[in-house]
Design goal:
This protein is an alpha/beta fold and 774 residues long. Helices cover 37% and strands 15% of the residues. It is built from 24 helices and 25 strands. The chain has a six-stranded mixed β-sheet. α10 packs across α11. The N and C termini lie far apart (63 Å).
């Protein structure tokens, strides 16, 4: 049996939907047209071609902003990455506003034609010379972080240097994240090799050729759906390769256990009730605050269902169970283990647009990405050694050496401790690995002599006769329109997916055929035996041990960030489980590879230059995040941490300001809709969050707290009265580093007065050394 992992989106809109598109605050028809075609306009200070009227220019700026939002950028703010990179000298000023317009313009220009290499000179042709520095800053950031000039177009591949002269990197895994990183690193001039345990590229994205009886089809046994085409980098690859995408159609009839169609009235009633319970669960978690961290979504939904007397009849309960199974499919996990507090933490970042299939299978994308990449197949890694002298990646009796290593193995492999790391990974990372969930989804692929289920359908569902089997063959995908043959795939989710691992394949096929014949034969439609079948066993696959990640009880979105942190400046991590914004998606894996290619290139460049800041930036970010879990003073979106060495009112403190939302994520207004039918929650309607910092005195912190009129007034008071500038975490300087180190020392001493604090990261050691020099 072929053993791969289903690899789909876990946000509520990331699967085939009955209902598409939500009315938004902007002209959606215009946005759809412009984003889908990726037509770029010109910002207000662009001077290209004919003179624009002010209204025309404003409209173009708006469209370019929407394109940027679809890619993952805030409409009118900087990302934390941009602040870290120092793209502007002053945050929240006029320079930032102009930078954002330039950034959005560059993104739109390249998305207008992704088959060309967009160079800085071409950008300057449409930007006034007075903004040359902003063009240079934004272009460098977008290029190095993989937002432009990526992919497999001939012009992009032609830009790869003929000779690699920079640091060597060993990439573990030839899945989407590993291949994305490999191509980027080659473009940056690095030497790379990829070590892959399978005999093919793609990892959990796998297309199997099925054939027999004169029929042939391409079956995506792993990742299959491009979830949200707006801004999706996989859509960019498809455009570069000239592949048309097939929009998954919305129609999805449901059938009872006996094969009869579910009545529309009951269907609508239970769907509405289910959505209301999810909304009510969201309200509960707001009210419970931190208590919700230890409660399961499944437990909450069942309690609410009983209290509201929902789905009390047998037929209603079966339909309610189908929605629960669909939710477990969306998260590749049991609802009894899914975090009530954070199960949908990635919702603000969802890709908008249609969900699509790639005709011929995702192998077409994988093959293009793997072309000309040095990949060593059949090499299962069992040990990774890393340190100041470089890395060793050991497979059997073969050792691959390099300056750095990028580990892209699935979370399941890390959970099973199938790879030994020497030295061991930091406790912070191993705890995050333990907390995050890694669930299971299985498939039964069937090639038939002909399409008997109707060419107008892409999906249809089946209700189980008992709650314990609710996820067993609950949803069918028709690939007849895209695979090249009459192919039907049945999904197995939740507890049923676990039990399916032990079910004999013949028994599984017979159960599926029984369901299909109960649906179609009463209508006079004969259901033939399949020509060829494949049953997946993702949980038994020693190269993944499951399908994709989720936020389990006790975990949070922070754990994705922790898993993404590099260790010691030589060991890096990528993969869907390292992407907080887009976990459990194919594009999330791809984007994480681009991200780490940029981080590796930056680390390599920093190692050859005099260090101005701690090199292990991600570890420094982790330390900073830790100390702000317990601020000394907190009001509005401001948090203050004092220097514990002095109580003098003039002693320094670190101020952190949350931009783009409240400290606690708010839910409602369409949140929590069941995944098969609920409406899109557009990313454009959500604000991404980031943190800005500055150094002030204790007395200034107290004075700021007393300012009335809200955070906006406080911000003006902070900048104008105190004359400070807000910066990213890199900009705190020596004084900030000294406070961070002092807080770490003081809190460690408080926890164990008799123990000696030993720094557990390279960056902390550097911070302490800097403090001692002071």
């Amino acid at each position: 049996m072929d053993q791969e992992a289903q690899y789909l989106g876990r946000g509520k809109s990331n699967r085939a939907l009955r209902q598409h598109a939500r009315i938004t605050s902007y002209d959606e028809a215009l946005v759809d047209e412009m984003i889908e075609q990726q037509l770029g306009g010109n910002p207000a200070f662009v001077a290209r071609g004919r003179k624009k009227k002010p209204l025309d220019m404003d409209k173009e700026v708006d469209v370019e902003a929407m394109i940027a939002v679809s890619i993952g950028f805030p409409r009118d703010a900087l990302t934390e990455e941009e602040i870290e990179a120092g793209v502007v000298t002053t945050v929240l000023g006029e320079e930032q506003a102009n930078y954002i317009v330039v950034r959005n313009h560059i993104l739109a220009r390249w998305r207008e034609n992704v088959n060309v290499w967009l160079d800085q000179g071409a950008v300057m042709e449409s930007i006034r010379s007075q903004f040359k520095n902003l063009v240079a800053s934004s272009y460098k950031f977008l290029l190095s972080h993989g937002y432009i000039n990526f992919g497999v177009a001939p012009a992009i591949k032609a830009a790869i240097p003929a000779e690699s002269t920079k640091a060597s990197v060993v990439i573990i895994g030839a899945g989407l994240s590993g291949l994305a990183a490999a191509r980027q690193l080659l473009a940056f001039g690095h030497k790379i090799i990829v070590v892959e345990g399978r005999q093919r590229p793609g990892g959990r994205v796998y297309t199997k050729k099925m054939e027999g009886g004169g029929k042939m089809a391409a079956a995506d046994l792993g990742g299959s759906v491009v979830t949200g085409i707006h801004g999706n980098p996989l859509g960019v690859l498809a455009r570069q390769l000239g592949f048309p995408l097939h929009k998954i159609r919305e129609k999805c009839p449901l059938y009872q256990p006996d094969g009869l169609p579910v009545e529309e009235d009951m269907d609508s009633k239970v769907e509405t009730q289910f959505n209301k319970l999810l909304d009510l669960a969201s309200t509960w978690r707001e009210q419970m605050e931190s208590v919700a961290d230890s409660i399961a979504l499944g437990t909450t939904l069942e309690t609410l269902r009983e209290q509201a007397s929902v789905a009390v009849t047998t037929d209603e309960r079966r339909l309610f169970d189908w929605h629960l199974a669909n939710l477990e499919y969306a998260n590749a996990g049991l609802l009894s283990k899914l975090s009530l507090a954070f199960w949908d933490q990635d919702d603000p970042y969802e890709m908008g647009g249609d969900h699509c299939f790639v005709p011929g299978g995702n192998v077409r994308l994988i093959s293009a990405l793997a072309e000309d990449i040095p990949i060593f197949y059949g090499k299962t890694v069992h040990t990774v050694r890393y340190g100041s002298n470089g890395v060793q990646v050991i497979t059997g009796d073969q050792v691959f050496e390099g300056d750095m290593a990028l580990c892209t193995v699935p979370l399941g492999v890390l959970k099973w401790k199938a790879i030994r790391f020497e030295p061991e990974l930091p406790q912070r990372k191993t705890e995050a690995i333990s907390r995050l969930g890694f669930g299971l989804l299985n498939k039964v692929a069937m090639l038939f002599p002909h399409v008997f289920w109707g060419a107008e359908l892409d999906t249809f569902g089946h209700l189980a006769d008992h709650s314990s089997r609710r996820g067993e063959f609950f949803l069918f995908y028709s690939y007849a329109a895209v695979s090249g043959g009459p192919l039907l795939i049945a999904l197995v989710a939740g507890e049923a997916a676990i039990n399916f691992e032990r079910m004999p394949p013949l028994q599984a096929i017979q159960r599926v055929l029984t369901i299909l014949r109960a649906i179609y034969e009463p209508r006079g439609i004969s259901v033939p035996d399949p020509i060829q079948t494949v049953c997946t066993r993702w949980g038994s696959d020693h190269l993944c041990y499951g399908s994709y990640s989720n936020v389990a009880v006790g975990a949070s979105g922070d754990d994705y960030d922790i898993l993404a942190e590099s260790v010691g400046g030589h060991l890096f991590f990528a993969g869907e489980a390292t992407n907080r914004q887009y976990p459990a998606t194919m594009h999330g894996a791809f984007l994480s590879g681009l991200r780490e290619a940029g981080n590796i290139a930056a680390q390599a460049a920093a190692s050859t230059a005099p260090p101005k800041i701690p090199k292990d930036i991600q570890s420094y970010a982790a330390i900073l995040a830790d100390i702000f879990r317990e601020p000394d003073l907190e009001f509005g979106n401001f948090a203050i941490v004092y220097d514990p060495q002095s109580e003098d009112p003039k002693s320094f403190a670190i101020l952190r300001l949350l931009i783009g939302g409240n400290a606690k994520k708010k839910y409602g207004d369409g949140q929590g809709m069941e995944p098969h039918k609920y409406q899109f929650q557009q990313q454009q309607q959500q604000q991404q969050q980031l943190h800005l910092y500055t150094i002030i005195t204790r007395q200034q912190a107290l004075d700021l707290r007393e300012v009335r009129g809200g955070d906006g007034v406080r911000l003006v008071y902070l900048c104008e009265k105190f004359g400070v500038k807000l910066v990213g975490r890199r900009g705190l300087g020596v004084n900030g580093d000294a406070i961070v180190a002092a807080v770490k020392w003081a809190r460690a001493a408080k926890k164990s007065a008799s123990s000696v604090h030993v720094p557990n990261t390279l960056v902390e050691t550097k911070i302490i050394a800097q403090r001692r020099r002071l």
